[in-house]
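Notebook B, p. 112. Complex prediction, attempt 2.
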Amino acid sequence: MTFTSCLFEWNSASYLGGGLFLTADGVTLTDCTFRGNSAWHGGGLKNYGSSGGLTLVNCIFSDNSVGASGGGLSTDSALSSLTNCTFCGNSAADDGGAVCNVSRGWDEVNTTLLSCVFAGNTAARGNAVACVLYDQDDESFAAGSVSVVNSILWDGGEEIANPIGLDMAIAYSNVRGGPGGVHDPCMVVVWGDGNIDTDPLFADPGYLDPNGTPDDGNDDFWVAGNYHLKSQAGRYDPATQSWVIDDVTSPCIDAGDPMSPIGLEPFPNGGRVNMGAYGGTPQASKSYFGGPPCETVVAGDINGDCRVDFLDFQIVGLHWLETSQ
Ligand SMILES: [Ca+2]
Ligand SMILES: [Ca+2]
Ligand SMILES: [Ca+2]
């Protein structure tokens, strides 16, 4: 089953999946938006017990909320694969402001987060991602894994809560608070190569508007942001559908895994994928090398800094004899 360019907006459920409640196997959602939905678990989407996997590509979860866990997405599926997705302004009263992985004890919950952005999400535990047991009183073991690669987790710190000790690996990602932003009492989280903790310099981070009543949180609403990365060499602006020049350049540009495909990133792309939801896409922010882009492109200039030198040779060496799919 496939959903393409669907909008799930301002729906609510008393228990599971405010926008969408899935029990089917092998569902793919592409270019879908979940906005302003609410439930008890899985404000935007609840992926419930499917074994065939859930695939989300280029989806946006914004301003969804829950009374318990998984403000944007709650999953206890055997496999959830999220690529180029944005979670912003989602909230959970308990666990996982954006994403909550629910281990049912008798089945694995495996989630991969590749090239995703988390910003402005809030929860009591794990502003971006949390791992919990289906039944807190259940003595069943927790089984499964969470992988975070080429992503930006920038929700004000305390990004990840993994109190149940699911296998977890984080690499080539920008995590606010660094290892200190990960609640990992079982000490199983693998802090891999290439992680940073630096302001990602989003074009416009979005914010929670108190609606004139700062003492009452019930009427607050999320003002949507723009999570393209600032660049002095060029950033795609979806509002004007044109490229604009910033006065600063994001540290997340060309900071993804050097072995990840560049995808459709426009030139100059540094010969390396960007972190975040636009990494590897035609809307990836361009690489800045301290001057204006090259007037002519020299053959062999892989990274786009207007020179052919060892840096280019290094990229070629790294990917020698690779073939694209
Ligand atoms: Ca208010
Ligand atoms: Ca790049
Ligand atoms: Ca070069």
